[in-house]
Design goal:
InterPro entries: DUF475 (IPR007427). The protein has about 350 residues and is mostly helical. The chain is about 80% helix and about 0% strand.
Length: about 350
């Protein structure tokens, strides 16, 4: 297994969060300045300041499981591609998913140019938010399907020998020998949920879900193709490219829910970008800390909790095509699962330490 850039475990937690703290200070200052510029009042500046802070917390709560999955994938990548993901990847995550992606949705949905979409975001935020909300159905179907495949692929793995929920995970691992079992499960769920929709919404849901499934399979195929030729230096770098692309699509799927949900707090694209961007920096810092400290190896069930959270998030995204589910429930639910997994890991470690011969 490849090691991370630094194998030191003595690095204090504050050191990992240094850049996140800096971005927080700058981002909140920009948020307050934006509030002052748009309202001309201190209360307006404080309101935008507070919204940015809440959005950052929302992003962190929704994306902590993302950090765990990123860390799991990063530990198998070469140091060069680890560095590229944590530099280029964070730029793509902050500017691509939090700014370009919402603009792209409006460009496609409203049939306008990128400049017109940007002007709409700045001058007509209510209309911009309406278009984003109307695009929620295909986004939820696409992202939910991709995330569901990510979670099921983790559990339907015949080489997986560490189980948190033993009775369930051991059976899923044994069924992994059945080719395409996770794909069949996802397609069954897609058909079941589509039956609850009517008219054009049903077609949009099914097509978007299929595109999500196809995207996952294509990323897997690309990663497998590049990993087959790792015997040369150039090919090894390409293998890192496959993992890099996988992580970027994964981050995009995680971001869908947060970006759409953020419009419940603010209709200003720039306020949303600041708040979610701050949260994304904390996710990056947590990812680095998890890899460098070997936290996933030390707390054996932490990864399980993250993938259960992903599975539940994917189902929630499907349910959101039918009813509105507050983002706070999604975030707290995922955080609670990870917390229980952490507690189970600590208890298991203590039991092993107590049973060890002295």
């Amino acid at each position: 297994m490849l090691t991370f850039m630094s194998t030191s475990t003595a690095k204090p937690m504050v050191a990992y969060l240094k850049w996140a703290f800096i971005v927080t200070g700058v981002g909140l200052a920009l948020g307050a300045a934006l509030g002052w510029q748009t309202t001309g009042t201190l209360s307006g500046a404080l309101t935008i300041f507070f919204i940015c802070a809440v959005l950052a917390v929302l992003e962190i709560s929704l994306s902590f499981d993302n950090a765990i999955v990123n860390a799991n994938k990063l530990k198998t990548m070469s140091p060069v591609w680890q560095h590229r993901f944590l530099t280029w990847g964070i730029l793509i995550a902050v500017f691509g998913m939090r700014i370009v992606f919402p603009l792209l949705i409006v460009v496609i949905a409203a049939h306008v140019g990128p400049i017109d979409a940007l002007i709409m975001a700045a001058a007509r935020p209510a209309e911009y938010a309406r278009i984003m909300q109307e695009a929620h159905l295909p986004i939820a179907a696409f992202g939910g399907t991709f995330l569901m495949m990510v979670a099921l692929t983790y559990f339907f793995d015949q080489e997986k020998d560490v189980h948190w929920v033993e009775w369930l995970e051991s059976r899923m691992a044994s069924y992994a020998t059945i080719k395409g079992v996770e794909i069949a499960l996802v397609l069954i769920l897609v058909l079941l949920f589509s039956r609850l929709l009517e008219g054009e919404a049903r077609n949009v849901f099914v097509y978007s879900a299929i595109y999500g499934l196809l995207t996952f399979l294509l990323v897997e195929v690309l990663g497998g193709f590049l990993d087959r030729t790792q015997e040369t230096t150039r090919a090894a770098a390409q293998g890192g490219l496959g993992a890099f692309l996988y992580l970027e699509v994964l981050d995009a799927s995680f971001s869908f829910d947060g970006v759409i949900g953020a419009f419940a707090l603010s209709q200003n694209l720039f306020v949303i970008a600041i708040g979610l961007g701050i949260g994304a920096m904390y996710v990056r810092s947590m990812t680095i800390m998890l890899v460098e400290r070997g936290t996933l190896a030390e707390y054996r069930y932490l990864e399980h909790g993250a993938f259960y959270a992903i599975l539940i998030l994917s189902v929630i995204m499907y349910c959101q095509t039918l009813v509105h589910i507050p983002e706070v429930i999604t975030g707290l639910g995922g955080a609670a699962l990870i917390g229980v997994a952490l507690w189970s890991s600590i208890r298991s470690n203590r039991c092993e330490a107590g049973a060890a011969p002295k």
